[in-house]
Protein 1
Amino acid sequence: MRDFSQDHRWLSINTATLRKSRGADVPLPQILDLCAARGVRAISPWRDQVQAAGLSTVSKLVRSHGLELSGYCRGGMFPAADAAGLKAAHDDNRRAVDEARELDAACLVLVVGGLPGALAGKAAHKDIALARSQVQDGIARLLDYARTVKMPLAIEPLHPMYAADRACVNTMEQALDLCDALDPQRTGALGVAVDIYHVWWDPKLQQQIARAGRDRLLAFHVCDWLTPTRDLLNDRGMMGDGVIDIPRIRGWVEAQGFAGYSEVEIFSTQDWWQREATETLDTCIQRHKTVV
Amino acid sequence: MRDFSQDHRWLSINTATLRKSRGADVPLPQILDLCAARGVRAISPWRDQVQAAGLSTVSKLVRSHGLELSGYCRGGMFPAADAAGLKAAHDDNRRAVDEARELDAACLVLVVGGLPGALAGKAAHKDIALARSQVQDGIARLLDYARTVKMPLAIEPLHPMYAADRACVNTMEQALDLCDALDPQRTGALGVAVDIYHVWWDPKLQQQIARAGRDRLLAFHVCDWLTPTRDLLNDRGMMGDGVIDIPRIRGWVEAQGFAGYSEVEIFSTQDWWQREATETLDTCIQRHKTVV
């Protein structure tokens, strides 16, 4: 397992982590400046942040700072209530692939979606098997396109508490079953993003990380699970503040040959987003070196 | 699949559902009176409610009302930080078995526990594999005793969002692996409580219900998953108000030969516990007949 204690060369900052400073929005260019100033070599930006700043502006900044993208957040949200919705989702995912390509991201992260309408509070139906079938079809179709521009797709299994409204792929095993179905040759075009927040609880985690192997481990995200967790979405903890044995899981991933970035992704309305972004970033660096 | 539309003979009320009326505690004897007055034939009471009213008082009331217990809530919480804690947990679980026996419960439901200390906000360690090992040892030991008094133990896999602090058994597959290990002869002494709130999201749910079979399906609990869910513990929905396809899951359970009660268990600080208990109970009966 790599030694992270001496420097933060393998730290990536998911830009949602620094989305807010003292409760106010931080524009993406400012986040990139902050990261570059501290010698962070990689980021993973969100589409809404890129759109707000402008893709070409972000693309230039990424290059001028010499930043890599450990991933691009995010494609997905495949299920829909009708054919028009399915087509709109596909078109939007193609654009996400193009943006990821323009930014030279290591992969496009897929948060696959849940029951159509559920995120807005009113599910169109209760058939999660149908949603899962639409996810498989949607990934299959997107994969055809992503292969042509050489953009790997990383399915991110989300915690089961998001099964209804954000992602109906909820375990590593399920995500890898999709990979086996859609890319049986293990070409590297399709894999998984392992976010420990979503999968740390899984009794089959070690086994499924081994099953994934190096070919399918496309991204590794860290934060921590707090007790108590006060909000289902925006109460993620800073590494070391919760109950996840992060080095153990990183060890499993690296035992498969994963040698990429450890990406910090923290949504925290009440805590970290209320602090100065510089404090949050400095803490990410310090914890990366001590508890990841 | 049984027809529930004509009456509520297969409805059981988990007494936590009626724990509060307009925000005020409702004593267990009053809950039993309410249920009996509406022709509810079964309940599943919580230990703290039984203790507050007195075991012998509750036992007499259960008999005088002719109520059955679809289960007794709850044993478990096996993991501990030291030997004294493990012994205390075992002793308490033996008492829970005795109480369940006194009340002639169909089973003792086991919420197995998570990382010791986590429920109080400070986990003693981060080794969930150790906690799981202590759970297996704890159930094995309790099972030896429970067999002697013929009280079936029902492992309740809890939603993965409770893995840290309430139960580190989080899928049907994991619970059934424990059953296979500890009661390979399928004697009926050990099984699972299927609470749809905890397992509805699981892509392997149908497969694992079939694996459980009639011998190991000891209890069936219903409520609903709301979108959004505002609280990790106490924002369960009334059947029909959320996204779970309840009849589909009940169909899978009954296809295995399960013919017991459908037990309503709703924790709802902001909604149902703020209403009159009579309104909550009447709604349970109505929804049992229409959407379960």
Protein 2
Amino acid sequence: MPEPKPSFVVTPYEVKGRIDYARLREEFGTQELTDDLKARLRRAAGGALHPLIDRGIYYSHRDLGWLLDRYEHGEPFFVYSGRGPSGPLHVSHLLQFELCRWLQEKFHVPMYIQITDDEKFWARSGLSREETVRWGEENLLDILAVGFDPARTHVFFDSKSIAALYPLAIRVAQKINFSTVKAAFGFTPSTNIGLVFYTALQTAPSFYPSWADGRSVPCLIPCGIDQDPHFRLTRDIAEGLGYPKPALLHSQMLPGLLGDAAMSTTGSREENALFLTDDRATVERKVRNAFTGGRATVEEQRRLGATPEICSIWALWRSRFAETDEQFRAITDGCRSGSLLCGECKQAILPRIHAFFDQQRAAREKVRPWAESTIVTRPPHPT
Amino acid sequence: MPEPKPSFVVTPYEVKGRIDYARLREEFGTQELTDDLKARLRRAAGGALHPLIDRGIYYSHRDLGWLLDRYEHGEPFFVYSGRGPSGPLHVSHLLQFELCRWLQEKFHVPMYIQITDDEKFWARSGLSREETVRWGEENLLDILAVGFDPARTHVFFDSKSIAALYPLAIRVAQKINFSTVKAAFGFTPSTNIGLVFYTALQTAPSFYPSWADGRSVPCLIPCGIDQDPHFRLTRDIAEGLGYPKPALLHSQMLPGLLGDAAMSTTGSREENALFLTDDRATVERKVRNAFTGGRATVEEQRRLGATPEICSIWALWRSRFAETDEQFRAITDGCRSGSLLCGECKQAILPRIHAFFDQQRAAREKVRPWAESTIVTRPPHPT
């Protein structure tokens, strides 16, 4: 009997179904983030590994070994990540930036952050330009508040940084044709020409330091594996432009509170995500209503145990809210054995989420005075 | 018997064959520039009419009557034209800017000039970015040297002005999809995504003053009729963005010296055009070798006369080199009657071409100190 086709979809514009991540990695043709590579990363980072990597949320890569080779030979890389500003950030967005901040700190490297206010306007018909710009400004404060070093952090806010990005994007756009973006993103003849062009702007930061300095500077992009098609295209054209292919570090999606494949909020699934703008009462309601791996009755759960792998709350513990590996193991074991009930588990995570949100909100006010100064507005040279 | 299909092609990317301009106007669905409208333009301009209009080289329009209505009611317009910098300017390019300068002077209106260094890089695979930027800078000097008023002249040099144009281009691009540009420009799936996007940037200047000032400012675009498809698209989306449709004034092409439909130099038809960079000896050689409407022998020409309408030299007299209407009539009559031979006619026009080139070269040095200051680099507002 043939193996059934997996019932999930993962593209930069759609994530749905119960994702088989090992299979997805095979389909995309990426490399496994092996224990050996993790050990190498740990050594290079000075002995510690970020929980997002250690606990397997970042699980796939392209060319990470090559990047570490070069790093070990004294060639520093830079980290690039981004955000499409369509609304407030939720927890899952911050995780990616927490990993970036960790990389910046441990490897002493520059961070480039792209805010794609143009793309979100082109991709979402319901959003005005004023809204994508305003959300871009709001999101940038939250991202910087994660703890980036202002002296080594550079922001491409697309509409404000276009003078810096455009000369390079012109070169990139010449290497990509309509059939390529059609195949990569599922575009159709009715896709607007902004969105058709956009991937040139998302590619430009990967090459920016190499272009600016006139020498090869390796790039590392931590991203959800759903974003891999964007950067496959970037990697395909890199050599033709004389720049190194960016290395990628792919994460699984943080599942939604309603049990969705990802904490995404396309449509109006407000209850699916924990937003930084949610007040305490809202956070509590969402957590209490969240989908778990629990049983139908307390008695049954005590007897048979629950299933952490399908639980949205366990995914939060795993991502950042379990502070130590011991704590994470205790929660996982308690869940599986039936000694920890879902209500108790939710009660235990709530104060940690509140503390995280409070800390983010306080840090956000501290970055406000210098946030604007991180935005790159001038190109290093005219062509 | 059905009328034969005309054997010519006119698109923004190709001009060939013997163009039937009346028929082309009908195919494109533009309006005839009638004697009534010319008389109105003459009155509004204070009593004189530019030879390019008076002698019928500008022969077609869209909404010119509407523009004059508004002008007569005290609402000034602005003029917009541009240049794709793929090499040195030739005489035909300058004619369009001479008309623009005349409009600026007679109607006391602002002039917007676009230099499309990005588009030329995307459209011509043989040109490097350094070349399109350098030609853009060179061409701009020649254009400004035509005599524009620095206080009322604004240049969009695409790669240098992108910060100013992009916020508006974002809005424009959202209104245009791939099938529209495919139909308008004959693009295919292998067209690069820069060229696909580009029409958004060529459209933005038409709306720029309206967008900047937050009120409707009419736009007049003098252009070769081959450029009409670009601006048809601009006109189609204008109302959806809340801006007035630009009015257009279309010219016939100046024929090439080798008898081509247009003085264009795609391919390596160097001898087809008179470039501003040509020295005197080159100009003389090209004029002496130019295609005319003359007969095979002097005797035959004396007896039967020549045909000015197909002659590349007569087209030059008509465009700007006949200084008065009397002189133009005398040359035309002499040609048709056989009293003026082609050699004599060429000998008579040569000093005028030399004088024009000398004057352009001198004026060019005078604009150099302030040319850069006309380039717009900042947007009026962020969205």
Protein 3
Amino acid sequence: MPLTDRLLLGPGPSNPYPEAVAALGRPMLGHMDPEFLGVLDETMERLREVFRTSNALTLPVSATGSAGMEACFVNLIEPGDAAIVGVNGVFGERMCEVARRCGADVVRVEAPWGRPLDPEHLLDAARDHPRARVLAVVHAETSTGVENEIAPLRALRDTDILLLVDTVTSLAGIPVEVDDWGVDACYSGTQKCLGVPPGLSPVTFSERAIARLQARDARPQSWYLDLSLIADYVAGSSRVYHHTAPVSMVFALHAALGAILDEGLEAAWARHRAVGTRLQESLPALGFELVVPEGHRLPQLTTAWLPPDADDATLRKALLETYGIEVGGGLGDFAGRAWRIGLMGHSARDRSVTTLLGALGELLS
Amino acid sequence: MPLTDRLLLGPGPSNPYPEAVAALGRPMLGHMDPEFLGVLDETMERLREVFRTSNALTLPVSATGSAGMEACFVNLIEPGDAAIVGVNGVFGERMCEVARRCGADVVRVEAPWGRPLDPEHLLDAARDHPRARVLAVVHAETSTGVENEIAPLRALRDTDILLLVDTVTSLAGIPVEVDDWGVDACYSGTQKCLGVPPGLSPVTFSERAIARLQARDARPQSWYLDLSLIADYVAGSSRVYHHTAPVSMVFALHAALGAILDEGLEAAWARHRAVGTRLQESLPALGFELVVPEGHRLPQLTTAWLPPDADDATLRKALLETYGIEVGGGLGDFAGRAWRIGLMGHSARDRSVTTLLGALGELLS
């Protein structure tokens, strides 16, 4: 088999931390083995540190980030519930679709692609729809490179509306403060700033989200993603078998979280911030124009309009084939016109920026 | 981190094939990278060989076997549909629960634990409920070690009832003949006879299952498991992004399927048959009594009543701690009284049988 080696600077997967890759090869353990359960416990403890939460119900869902999104909605929504969803990109749209499939009445609060949601508009919607059950926002919109501000939404604490946040592209890359921001349900993915291969979705639920879960009239429509059942295995003292945990992926997540916490979570944030800023300051000299206004840019995911005379497909193909560098194309309206350049997890290094800028300089000269 | 090394002779996970472990460490590729898509195509082709099918829609679902079960039901069932389910163990029960959460009216056809379902009873139920949408059976009941016969159910071809089969514990261990048996929807898991870590669920859908999918009134309640959307990415010519594929796990599945097909699928079946028979012939001399009548035993998963004077927990703990051998305890009524001993995938070796019999001989003497 060819062992093609890429520098992964797209919207994810990133290059995993070497610690995660090494851990994938750990000898297999049974999902009820005391040693595996010990690793799982430690993984949940490390996830709490990274989510900045003391939530007991903090665990890796056994599927990718989009399943984490679905896990949050199927557990918190019952048919006929209203759900307020912020939409300024692909992943806000996906939340609407997932919520609708749970039978929700979706109230959309929109902003244009490339612009942040206005927290006041979201809070206005909450005031207009006081019986809404959740208000859902994507923290870091992977389709546009925009950061949506979450902290002001902590005002929802004083309502009966739960705050549901997508941190797939933000967790461990920029500050995420689950407890301080009053986030009730939060999911992420492993293949971005956590620096693990894709395959797991860390999820955390607050006490009031758990209370909502326990007060449901009907069981969630998904058995696989039923957090009450999953929690009995993952976090319950009796370890009731639910499904076979993806053991190797849990090993990898455990190891990457260890690497991040050894570096220090704030240090990892600062590293993402530094390399992202350097990239964003350097791109205009090559003819790129940043999509997102200053103050709302994600350091870990930069969107940039291509230089006027550059052809998207040709340039990305040359980067991939000549240099082994992957960057991401635009989605939706951005397709063919903008790039998404990720500097996430282990890929968030000065070396990555130097390499990309050097290659682009050669290709565009 | 301790790198504890077990001989995994429980109901799964088994010890992965070394080829699968090596492939886990392949350098990460993006999920839209042409090289990864090539590996994915080859994986689907290999899955068709192992499922014995020419079904175009044959792919790995990005979660464990139970999610494969849910994928089959959410795509094929609409609220109010009748579903006939064979129940003679935990996984038949799970099918009923998953079907109910899709809004199905479940018709149960039962057999006692440790005994096979009577195919005639299932076909009788199909005659009594001609408007049922699916008839679902577990081929290899992981909770009891029983093989349920699937071939006679090919008679459903002449009805409008789709045949849905769980091959989590059978695929690549004993003959599974998707096309020849007229199976319309079939799912498996990677961590049993396929010899891959847990984390993916291979699924295959027949033409008439796809027609059912396309004729649905409403979209499936799960977005993550919506096979129409998944197929657009995995198997469609346009490769429409759906979710980020679990790249490393696909590498591992690809490699293990390669190892199995290099050995020869029939040779792999024969290997499972030989080691399972040897174990089953040897256990009575140690005081164990086989649970399942001859002719219905799975070679890859043996259930045996413990010797009258043996204590389940003590004996399994000694096996695990002294010898590093994992066997499975009983579920439900079998808890504390019977064991489940797996010889699956890479664990299905004469060496495994010799080791286990030697250890048990020492512990029970």
Protein 4
Amino acid sequence: MIDLSCDYNVGCAPELLAALCAANETQHATYGSDAFSARAKEKIRAAVANPDADVWLLVGGTQTNATVLAAILRPWEGVISAASGHIAVHESGAVEASGHKVLALEADRFGRLSPETLRAYLRGFYADETYPHMVRPGALYVSHPTELGGLYTAAALRELRALCDEYGLRLFLDGARLAYALASPETDVTLPLLGELCDVFYIGGTKCGALCGEAVVFREKQPCFFPAHKQRGALLAKGFLLGLQFDALFTDGLYLRLGRQGVACALRLREGLRSLGVSFSPESGSNQQFPVLTAEQLNRLRDKVGFEVWERRADGSAVVRLCASWRTMEAEIDAVLDALR
Amino acid sequence: MIDLSCDYNVGCAPELLAALCAANETQHATYGSDAFSARAKEKIRAAVANPDADVWLLVGGTQTNATVLAAILRPWEGVISAASGHIAVHESGAVEASGHKVLALEADRFGRLSPETLRAYLRGFYADETYPHMVRPGALYVSHPTELGGLYTAAALRELRALCDEYGLRLFLDGARLAYALASPETDVTLPLLGELCDVFYIGGTKCGALCGEAVVFREKQPCFFPAHKQRGALLAKGFLLGLQFDALFTDGLYLRLGRQGVACALRLREGLRSLGVSFSPESGSNQQFPVLTAEQLNRLRDKVGFEVWERRADGSAVVRLCASWRTMEAEIDAVLDALR
Amino acid sequence: MIDLSCDYNVGCAPELLAALCAANETQHATYGSDAFSARAKEKIRAAVANPDADVWLLVGGTQTNATVLAAILRPWEGVISAASGHIAVHESGAVEASGHKVLALEADRFGRLSPETLRAYLRGFYADETYPHMVRPGALYVSHPTELGGLYTAAALRELRALCDEYGLRLFLDGARLAYALASPETDVTLPLLGELCDVFYIGGTKCGALCGEAVVFREKQPCFFPAHKQRGALLAKGFLLGLQFDALFTDGLYLRLGRQGVACALRLREGLRSLGVSFSPESGSNQQFPVLTAEQLNRLRDKVGFEVWERRADGSAVVRLCASWRTMEAEIDAVLDALR
Amino acid sequence: MIDLSCDYNVGCAPELLAALCAANETQHATYGSDAFSARAKEKIRAAVANPDADVWLLVGGTQTNATVLAAILRPWEGVISAASGHIAVHESGAVEASGHKVLALEADRFGRLSPETLRAYLRGFYADETYPHMVRPGALYVSHPTELGGLYTAAALRELRALCDEYGLRLFLDGARLAYALASPETDVTLPLLGELCDVFYIGGTKCGALCGEAVVFREKQPCFFPAHKQRGALLAKGFLLGLQFDALFTDGLYLRLGRQGVACALRLREGLRSLGVSFSPESGSNQQFPVLTAEQLNRLRDKVGFEVWERRADGSAVVRLCASWRTMEAEIDAVLDALR
């Protein structure tokens, strides 16, 4: 069976496994002070073109979101997010558990927060005389790609950044699937741009070829993020496990290569489905595709392809998620399309 | 100037002030163990017709909401509220500050949460396979009257209670303005009914004739609410200050009498405005009225009546709040109406 | 019966009650924006000789401690306190409830933290290579008078301040009983000195002549303390209740006068007890006296004087707390001493 | 150089790495619902001889401590710990960050909390009339082995359990190094005994042969631990990474075997050092040894052996930690002893 159900259900890219095997018997400094982590951070600083960037390696996405937000917000501040954002929906209230409200704004159909929506909210907030009694927006959270495969453009991010500057917000970008955004021909957002625009963002490992791990990149030095992430249980004793994976991911362009494979397969699938007359809800330029399949089409894929049903409709059709990843092969995509023809 | 701007900008009812003056020189037991508090609690238990009710006297509304919710929720639980609910909007994130998400659902135009909306949400929640990753609804918060003067009926509350039973939610009713609901001819909700239906509710003092104070009524004994409210800074050293006020409010039906005065004035105002062809947004059966006044009408009230502008409209008209209280006099209402004629 | 059991079991000083009665019928701006509060803050700024001081009126002591600390600490920081400090013992974990560890250090027999103890702790902390895994000290909490009636000298506070500067700590002084320290001949600490040395301190009302209320004085402007204290339920809707009390307390030197009365009585008591050969545990220069009374002496006071037993000893003697306050009269003290003669 | 510096600075046992390599290419169910995790849990239930035990796989120790305590405590409860306990010292305030005070009691020289100390504290707590204002003890935390290599006996644990029952405490045992306790000839505590006595404990992976991972064992079913640990960022998307490691650790007695190797080496070292007249601070029956070495002995080990200096003394001697682990070899121990002869 061809597995397009999700991008976090297999192990890691072979390069990472090889690095892990090679390092298994060696002694490493602990708690993130190992040589692998140092190298990984150096390479990431180079990749984001910011020698002052402060890089930290955490374990998973929810942990990273909650830990970073707890570190950058003050108690009376909340974080703005698209209503479909991961922190707003699927993290069991991790952000609220550290005391901060998620200020959910309407997203577009791609799960993106538009500068217009953000501007209208911020103007409205400060125009309301009762705003001192309300949760102060302290940060903006965006995911790129979004949970629905949506992609921001450099221009949109710049507009969001300008609004953050105007209203005193820190900009935090969730890059759990960042490889698939960086590799997409449909956005011009690059790592250096993120390093320039975001107060903090992270480079997702778990969904982009690693066993686990997310690399958090702060634009500026964070003297207290060590206790901040230790306190949230986000500091791994054997930090070299994260270090060696990101070291490998940022060696010889592997991270981008993995992303490209996932996106190439996803776009091949999108193209093929389009040619079959399939519509999308929404279209995605990233590794996740959300086609609307008829009952018959669904039937044809049964037992051949693993996928997730996103939304069942009354007529038997459904929006499904077909999720390519760094390990999906073009031949698998072709087989899926064949099954539908 | 006639003051209809809000119901918490003067001192207390004369009976309370007299009680305070009489008690000022006497020694009282501390931290809520005084005789006044004991008497007040006894009278409240009688008024709610529940001899097992556990009554606690706290200082203010936001404090009460956050303290009660922190005591009844587990860390992974959130509280459902109308999107216009006080905890969702105007408490600076007090509920989130203790770790719990406010799950905001669409309210009707009166600021009420309908049983239909609640049922649809709960069904949808548990129908979503990803719900274990989402914030579990643990309690339902309703305000009565709502922030917009809306009133629940006994039937509606019973339906909400049934849904709470079905889905394992505790029912918490914010009665910051409860006197004005109990006194309204437009709802059949009584104190004994609240004592029966709510796991916990509170009888507002601050907006209903007291200097400060909210009486929290739990349906069942709470062995640990003492440290729970001490921990939130809600325990007054001189607890007799709260005790004597609630003792006075629940002597000879004062609380209801104060409520009736506010409601009588508000309904007299509503009737008068209606006869002048004024519309409302929304109508209220409680002490707060939200008429839509034209630019000319607004002008006529200027310098004569204190009120709050709720929403300015492009044509110069505005939704305003005219707020009667226990100390508003019929003659004041008539003067307001005269000014508009 | 003469009541020396505590300093928060009667109402307020007559001047405050009169002000309350006079203001009860008038309309006041809400949430602390009233004229009384403005005047009180102005007077307090003058009293601390710091025109830039930012003054806020909160309701009670535990609330104030937890709210201030939540506002000035970052998540990974704790607060240093004497092990006998109120926040370390008697606030039901209010500080921890907002996420911060109380770092308890050994106090001297007066409940004071010595500069030597603090210096040794701070040196030891940063000398420990594992300190990044430990709770970072972010603030120093001292109470003046202490819970045991102890008093800091100006020199000691200056030493503590110097250590705070050296190690990046904010200095927070709990003045729940400050009137009795300011009035004591046994310390040279003044309000202007506190305004100079403390990042933030508070002037206790509840135990010093008010019904409730603590005036928090920040050395510098706090742009976000409004939501910070609203969020903790510490903002009173009828803020004028606090404003008028502090306005009265800081009119014509009332606050100091009330303090002086309490201290004069306490020292008269101490002198009398000493002349009877009574020892103390510890001596206090403040309004609380902790004499060690024999079984016979305890017996003589029974039914004549209200006091608290602090520590029963095997031989039937006990350390007791005899607590004078602004309303204790010299004649009462003499009667107590007569009973023991 | 022989590395005895710590037990978490290399990779995992070969069996685990082999399992990881074998599973790397396969598709696994996500978020802990994979077959490996199911098998691991089944094996652990068997090992603790409790078919109803509820087993969860988390990533690291600090995370586990904070997550479990947040799940089992109510807001007003604290957790009792030896003052030298990991949660009290070296977790950057993770427990306080979720709102709970660590109630630190004096440990014996092995870092153990004695039943006598616990009993005295609990009696004293409830004998103090002011206890409702203090943090209520809600759970007891013990580590086994302790941070100093101390070991509880079954009898001691039974006594602690009895006190927990008497005072309504949950018993939580931190088994970060549990393999080295189970393997020690100096304690009779077994996994089934822990399954019987502890409300919850965990079987440490990180320090006992795994790359990462701690297996939490609740005595009773926990219907809400899924959102509880998701909320704390402790749920791994690729949960099979933990599942396969614990599956391997609990196959053919590997976990105990790894523990035995560490303990055998440590006791061989202890014996050898004793025969050289070395004293300990303290002696340990577990994998960590804390000998007091003279300046000359320290010098002899330099460049030959990796170890941690625990406490430098004025005469040039030092308490050091020599830490054996599952991968230490007897020959390495002999070489260390040779260097000292």
